[in-house]
Amino acid sequence: MRPIRVGFLSPSLQLGGAERWIVSLATGLNPTYFDALAIAIQAPNAVHPIVATHLHDRIPILHGTKHFAELASRSDAIIAWGECDLSAAAVYTCKIVYVAQGQCPWTCACVRKAIERATHLVAVSKAAAQTFPDPTKVAILYNAVDTNRCAVHTPRNVQRALWQVQPHEKLIGYVGRPSDEKTPLACVYAARALGPPYRPLLCGGGPYADPYHAMARRICPDVVNQPEVDQVGDVYAALDCMMLASRVEGHSLALAEAWYCRCPTIATPVGATPELEAKHGKLTVTLPTAHTARDLVTAVLAVLHPGNDCIERAHEVVANNYTTRHMCRRWEAYLAEICRPGSPEAAHLAFAE
Fold first, then answer.
1. Which residue positions in the chain have pLDDT lower than 50?
2. Does 150 map to a domain?
3. Residue 16's pLDDT is what?
């Protein structure tokens, strides 16, 4: 029996968590059972050079919505996320799987458009499933980390020296795309409230990175502003703790990466975090979603306390459950079941883990 043919639709291929997810999935499906045909992007030429390097000679990138219908005509299943025009793909008989990656207003607006055309619904957490009219009809397939990106290539002392950070200083970091719902300046306010030797670090890119970096500099002049990087393991190894003060999330890739890298973390109880802690135990120091300066200080002191026992547990949970290998096996079982229900390969893949 021929492999199941899968196409992918994405608004763009930048360095965000959702783009990382679709790249990992497209390149990680087992070629014995699946043929990943191509990734078609809505915005022509909106491909970050780093992503293009990862995809080089592995899977074609098709630029523009003109390719959506042609890709759908060749696919057994199309996997899409974000603001993608599904009308061109919907005229064909392939399964159209739409994935909710978060809970922000933009995601909610995208979901409202997508559900008119999608045949199957997926969310990256139970929290993200709430963006759909009926969450009970949504499959939950958790995101995962690329362990290669989490490897340390630059030793901690060397990376900190590059940032002109002294050995005695304590770095509180935010890693990811700066945007309002993620409250990226929380680490800056925490460092200002604590005073020396605490310093903040913002690491990320995107359309709002420059304004946020400028605001951070005004609040705390000794902030380290680092553009987005591919080898995030170097960043997490150099931090003393990572803070994610989001008001809403789906399944934060940055937080999962920090867990895998054994970087102490502080996070608000949003997105997948409460779900994973209910299943696996305490993984992070909790910060109230509506937090004060005192809350920030308390959280930092708690995460750096020698009695913090979350660090190794969080690493083990991600390493054993939420790497790209685990994610792809879950997706393989799901795709086999919706494309060829009851088939021998669907039964085999259902027990692939």
1. 351-353
2. no
3. 85
